């Protein structure tokens, strides 16, 4: 089991100064698994997934991604980052590049893929997120939902093993949330290994293999979606769910 | 008092013979100053105290003293230093043009480095994180993300500095250079008509500033085309 795990976090701790943002995190994710992470604001969800591609450096414990341990070795970090895509709440597209260039840049620089091939891949993934006609625009000319779909396509162009989503729909107007969730659901159906921080409970129910609830830097509860939503064991989970479902 | 237009008509073409020198001062010190500014800015953001400290002291000194004083120190002061007289740099400092370029470069370099630093610090952290997440190296992020975005952010302030540099070139006339202002001062000494001559000189600078501003505006719009909806 551990040998197949794509992501192994063992007893991971993280401090910001004297503040402990993560405490004893144990998380194993196998290939093809879809994990949804939820929890109150400030509970450490972002910090946890940002440790997986080392946007944050963990202070305690061990993180092994696809057999490579995350240490200070730059070569290993870059190797891990090639295999781990990330989608941010605020899209973070490169504002000065046209959409197709946004999708080509890392292919060219990191994967050293020839220009024509990189462009073909970019167009292929733009088709997949259903906005090939936007290829020559600049990010600011797209709606939020379109920008987030571009961000997903940009991550996919690198052919990652894993994609991390950090509240990908939280910054979107309500009418754009579904178009992004649809793309994510498609990805899940294709067998992509995913960790999604999201409060979209419908998505979690239909897509997740496991739901993880975090509070105050700890994983408080971990269960399949049915158990998680219908019979949560922990009092904090129950309180959180009642707040989320209240609106 | 009445302006004597015949003096203006007479003086303008003579002053304009100095425009070449004004441009040389402007362009050379702008280019050299930009190179210096990039170096200073890189030192400043290097995160290494032995690089950022000297850069900071340098910037502090050059922003804290009048450019006229800097020009005088170079022009009147350097020739008194034996090690400069004996060095290969002496041909530069023996020549008032070299002194003016040197002083203007050092001065504008200090200001522009701060402008560039502002641009670099203005680049959204999320964009760089997206670069990291895609596996770009620090160098690649600097070249493909930070530099173009920071350039666009810094451009308006940089344009202002170029315009004040244009006007600072007039100070070169104080160390005998015959730029437009230098020629105007000679003409005033000859004609005793300071109003006519300095007013027409002022108009020439205004026109040059206007042209510079328009051109910089175009560059700004071109580089900022991605900011338009
Ligand atoms: N760069 C940082 N510096 C200091 N504190 C931080 C930093 N990033 C996050 N934190 C703190 O760590 C805690 C967890 O943050 P985060 O992982 O962003 O929570 P979540 O994503 O669950 O809302 C919060 O209390 C937050 O204030
Ligand atoms: Mg968060």
What do you see in this structure?
The complex is a heterodimer of chains A (247) and B (229). Chain A has 247 residues and is α/β, with parallel strands linked by helices. Chain A is built from nine helices and ten strands. Chain A has helices spanning 45-52, 74-83, 99-109, 115-128, 144-157, 174-189, 201-207, 225-230, 235-246; strands at residues 5-16, 19-30, 34-38, 60-65, 68-69, 84-87, 162-166, 193-197, 210-215, 218-223. In chain A, helix 6 (174-189) links the parallel strand 7 (162-166) and strand 8 (193-197). In chain A, helix 3 runs parallel beside helix 5 (144-157), helix 4 (115-128) crosses helix 5 and helix 5 packs parallel to helix 6. By secondary structure, chain B is mainly α. In chain B, helix 1 packs antiparallel against helix 10, helix 2 packs antiparallel against helix 3 and helix 8 (125-133) packs antiparallel against helix 9. The longest helix of chain B has 31 residues, at 138-168. The termini of chain B are far apart. Classes of the chains: A alpha/beta (247), B mainly alpha (229). Chain A binds chain B through residues 53, 55, 78, 81-82, 84-86, 88, 90, 92-97, 105-106, 109-110, 138-141, 151, 154-155, 158, and chain B through 124, 126-127, 129-137, 140, 144-145, 148-149, 152, 225-229. The structure holds adenosine-5'-diphosphate and magnesium ion.
Helix percent of chain A reads 25-40%
The mean pLDDT of chain A is 93
What percent of residues of chain B adopt helix (DSSP H or I)?
over 70%
Task: Give the percentage of residues in beta strands of chain B.
Answer: under 5%
Instruction: Determine the most extensive contact between two protein chains.
Output: A-B, 28 and 23 residues
Number of helices of chain A: 9
Strand content of the residues of chain A, in percent? 25-35%
- Give a quick account of the main beta sheet of chain A: strands, pairing sense, barrel closure: 6 strands, mixed
H/E element sequence of chain A: EEEHEEHEHHHEHEHEEHH
């Amino acid at each position: 089991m551990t040998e197949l795990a794509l992501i192994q976090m063992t007893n991971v701790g993280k401090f910001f100064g004297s503040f402990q943002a993560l405490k004893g995190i144990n998380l194993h994710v196998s290939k093809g698994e879809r994990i949804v992470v939820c929890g109150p604001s400030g509970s450490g969800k972002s910090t946890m997934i940002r440790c997986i591609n080392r946007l944050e450096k963990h202070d305690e414990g061990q993180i092994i991604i696809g057999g490579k341990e995350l240490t200070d070795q730059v070569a290993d970090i870059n190797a891990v980052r090639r295999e781990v895509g990330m989608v941010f709440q605020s899209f973070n597209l490169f504002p000065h590049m046209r959409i197709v260039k946004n999708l080509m840049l890392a292919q060219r620089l990191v994967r050293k893929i020839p220009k024509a091939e990189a462009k073909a891949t970019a167009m292929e993934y733009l088709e997949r997120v259903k906005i090939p006609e936007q290829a020559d625009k600049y990010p600011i000319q797209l709606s939020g939902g379109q920008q987030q779909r571009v961000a997903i396509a940009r991550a996919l162009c690198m052919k990652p093993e894993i994609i991390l989503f950090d509240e990908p729909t939280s910054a979107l107007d309500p009418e754009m949330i579904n178009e992004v969730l649809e793309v994510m659901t498609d990805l899940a159906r294709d067998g992509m290994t995913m960790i999604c921080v999201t409060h979209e409970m419908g998505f979690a129910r239909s897509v997740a293999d496991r739901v993880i609830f975090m509070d105050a830097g700890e994983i408080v509860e971990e269960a399949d979606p049915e158990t998680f939503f219908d019979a949560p064991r922990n009092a904090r989970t129950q309180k959180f769910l009642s707040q989320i479902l209240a609106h | 008092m009445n302006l004597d237009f015949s003096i203006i008509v007479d003086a303008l073409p003579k002053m304009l013979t100095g425009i070449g020198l004004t441009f040389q001062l402007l362009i050379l010190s702008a280019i050299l100053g930009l190179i210096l500014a990039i170096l200073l800015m890189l030192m400043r953001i290097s995160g290494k105290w032995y690089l950022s400290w000297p850069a900071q002291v340098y910037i502090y000194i050059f922003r804290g003293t009048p450019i006229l004083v800097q020009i005088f120190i170079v022009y009147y002061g350097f020739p008194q230093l034996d090690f400069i007289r004996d060095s290969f740099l002496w041909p530069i400092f023996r020549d008032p043009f070299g002194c003016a370029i040197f002083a203007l470069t050092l001065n504008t370099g200090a200001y522009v480095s701060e402008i560039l630093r502002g641009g670099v610090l203005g680049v959204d952290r999320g964009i760089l994180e997206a670069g990291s997440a895609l596996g770009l190296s620090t160098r690649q992020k600097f070249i493909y993300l930070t530099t173009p975005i920071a350039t666009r952010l810094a451009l308006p302030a940089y344009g202002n500095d170029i315009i004040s540099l244009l006007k600072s070139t007039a100070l070169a006339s104080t160390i005998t250079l015959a730029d437009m202002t230098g020629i105007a001062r000679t003409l005033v000494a000859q004609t005793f008509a300071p109003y006519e001559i300095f007013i027409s000189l002022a108009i020439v600078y205004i026109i040059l500033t206007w042209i510079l501003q328009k051109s910089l505006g175009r560059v700004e719009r071109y580089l900022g085309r991605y900011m338009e909806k």
